[in-house]
Amino acid sequence: MSQRNQSTRPLYFAAAFGTGGLLSFMVLFNGTLAAYGSLFFASWVPHLTGTITALLVLSVLKPKRAHTKRPPLWVYLGGVSGAVTVMLSSAALNSGLALSGTIALGLAGQMVFSLFADMRGMFGLPQRTPVRRDILALVLIITGSLILIFLGSGS
Amino acid sequence: MIFFAALAILAGVLVSLSRQVNGRLALSTSAMESSFWNHTVGLVFITGVALLVGGLFAGEPGAAPWWAYFGGPVGVIFVAAGSWLIARIGAAHTALLIIAGQMTSGVILDIIMGAPGNLAARSLGVGLILAGMWVVQGGKRT
């Protein structure tokens, strides 16, 4: 990998860690909405306010397009996949799996598919092969997560 | 039970799929434009399903605290950041570090909000996650 890549990697990792912190607030906010309204409402509201927010940011910042040529249509469908996620996890949550089981299985699905996609270079993203260090980190982080999910909230 | 377990796993797969497709869109446009389309297309989709199934405004949504409505703006940054990162560090690293950040911040939020918890399990869990972060970013890359 390039020199530039080596020096910026820790920054990217820190940014990803912070991005995960945002997710906790999203779960708290959207979960609170679901406690008062329907599960549809709890997903509909953040999509609506998110659309408005993104539109405002785009109109102020006007970020440059990386390419003038339009990408294929399917790349616009990421939002459908995200919306279906909410419905599936709501269905699983209301089964015998409970929150801990739903989260743990979701993490497993997310990690396995991410590794698979990296190794195949799917969806026009760069192909990557995990090294031994990545696997060790994966085992540590997932073990820590499972301990938090299944034992952390007990008294 | 196995059916619902499969749904929970599929939900995780779709999280990753969504981030990859949005990341691909960000490569052609920009991370913020990708986040915009993610939210707009998702909104149209949810509205359609909610119209078919009904019950969008069931319950007492008006009674929710005002701050609960701020999930959208946070989500815009979340999706933009994920789309930006996935092209730079890959799907697995992005997912792994987002999980690490979510778990760690979840513990901090729980402690602040006084949710009951096991101190030993929390310490061990966060300790292992931080060790994993130290491992993944260290060392010379080949």
Quaternary organization? heterodimer
From N to C, what is the helix and strand string of chain B?
Answer: HHHH
Number of strands of chain A: 0
Q: What can be said about the biggest beta sheet of chain B? A: none
- Total number of helices of chain A: 5
Helix/strand/pairing category of chain A: mainly alpha
The secondary-structure class of chain B comes to mainly alpha
The tally of domains of chain A stands at 2
Percent of residues in helices of chain B comes to over 70%
Distance between the termini of chain B: 44 Å
Taking the sheet with the most strands of chain A, its summary is:
none
Any idea what the radius of gyration of chain A is? Answer: 19 Å
| Mean pLDDT over the full residue set of chain A | 88
SSE pattern of chain A? HHHHH
Question: Count the strands of chain B?
Answer: 0
Helix count of chain B equals: 4
Contiguous low-pLDDT stretches of chain B (5 residues minimum) are none
Which residues of chain A form runs of ≥5 with pLDDT under 50? none
Layout of strands and helices, then pairs:
The complex is a heterodimer of chains A (155) and B (142).
Chain A: H1 3-36, H2 39-61, H3 78-93, H4 98-120, H5 132-150
Chain B: H1 2-28, H2 31-53, H3 71-112, H4 119-137
Helix pairs in contact in B: 1-2, 1-3, 2-3, 3-4
